[in-house]
Amino acid sequence: MIPNEKLHEVIAVVKHIILWKLKDEYNTDEVKKGIKSNLEGLLGIIPGLLEISVQTECLSSSNADVMLYSVFESETALKGYATHPEHVKVADTFVRPFTQTRSCIDFCEK
To answer: In angstroms, rounded to a whole number, what is the distance separating the alpha carbons of residues 81 and 62?
Structure first.
């Protein structure tokens, strides 16, 4: 909790958004559920990870199959996430083998 005397200060967070296109043969509900549950399961494990959600229900107008939306307390926390053993295990097991393309945007928001 932020002390009252600090409430006037603006706190910046880092947002990390990924879009994946799955390989055609792996564009299944089972693969999407595995990606979603395992990535969202990292909350509380990765230091500095404040929020994480995975969207797998896309409208037909989309050109991606899966979206990751995550919020970190700092750029340092985002860098730690990238190399954290639990994240690497999830990415290597449940994401990378099934994805064709990956797009990423990271930005700081106050």
So the answer is: 27
